[in-house]
Write a structure and sequence with these properties.
Blueprint lengths: L8 E12 L2 E12 L3 E6 L5 H8 L7 E6 L2 E4 L5 H12 L1 E4 L11 H11 L5 H14 L15 H13 L5 E5 L7 H16 L5 E4 L3 H7 L2 E6 L2 E6 L1 H6 L4 H10 L1
Parallel strand pairs: 3-8, 3-9, 6-7, 7-8
Antiparallel strand pairs: 1-2, 1-4, 4-5, 9-10
Helix pairs in contact: 3-4, 3-5, 4-5, 5-6
Length: 256
């Protein structure tokens, strides 16, 4: 299938399986995301969506298969010294935004954003601070730089988390249900930041979400997960307007 975006492939997943004991959570996933694409992954809770993201940046070790991000290609198996360095390189290229923010509570907003560039990339603190200020402005929170996470709303914390991920200059952003922990009135401010990343910056994004309005407006492609497999994918107008699989239709009838 030809895909919007048309650039080189940034993320390639081949034959990905993930098992917890006797339970197969992912069952032979094949997926490619091209440069500039926004791919929205959706489906029922427990269908394997979040596990896919966690395997892509090796927060979970895949049981079987191949993960490639920006030319860093990793097969499953024992974590040798070489492989550990490859995983580090892969993680530098992937920005991850979690549903529960995962900010460091003892650091201010700007310190949270500075932490990766200064600690992982070895950037001077002054340079990291300048970049962090620019990113806080980008997500609409320059005035919150010196506040701690507990002093911020959930929407503000999530926007700080997005800025923190962007500070590492990732090749792809992974969003794991970034609005699911937010009150309804705060969801829009986070989606607005994500929308600007896609439309203004052309950021490559893989987004797990139930926000179908966002998918309809921003996604290049949608992929429906069912029992650990991608059973349908295509442009939003096609998937939302005329789903081929009964499982997709049933899910959409429940959420739309």
């Amino acid at each position: 299938m030809s895909r919007p975006g048309g650039g080189r492939t940034v993320v390639r997943v081949e034959g990905l399986w993930k098992s917890f004991g006797a339970h197969d959570v992912l069952r032979g996933i094949d997926l490619e995301v091209d440069e500039g694409e926004v791919v929205v992954v959706f489906g029922r809770s427990g269908s394997g969506k979040s596990t896919l993201l966690r395997c892509i940046n090796f927060l979970e070790e895949p049981t079987e298969g191949v993960i490639e991000v920006d030319g860093i290609r990793l097969e499953t198996g024992h974590r040798t010294r070489v492989k550990r360095e490859q995983i580090r390189q892969l993680r530098v290229r992937t920005g991850m935004v979690f549903q529960d923010f995962n900010l460091f509570p003892h650091l201010t907003a700007i310190e949270n954003v500075m932490e990766g560039p200064s600690t992982v990339l070895g950037k001077p603190r002054s340079e990291a601070r300048e970049t962090a200020r620019e990113l806080l402005s980008q997500v609409g929170l320059p005035e919150k730089a010196d506040l701690y996470p507990i002093q911020l709303s959930g929407g503000q914390q999530q926007r700080i988390a997005i800025a923190r991920a962007l500070a590492m200059h990732p090749r792809v952003m992974l969003f794991d249900e970034p609005t699911s922990a937010l009150d309804p009135e705060l969801i829009g401010e986070v989606l607005a930041v994500m929308r600007s990343l896609a439309t203004e910056l052309g950021m490559t994004m893989l987004v797990v979400t139930h926000e179908m309005g966002f998918a309809r407006e921003v996604a290049s492609r949608m992929a429906f997960f069912h029992e650990g497999e991608i059973i349908e994918q295509g442009p939003p107008a096609e998937v939302l307007g005329n789903p081929r699989r009964p499982e997709t239709r049933q899910f959409l009838e429940a959420v739309l």
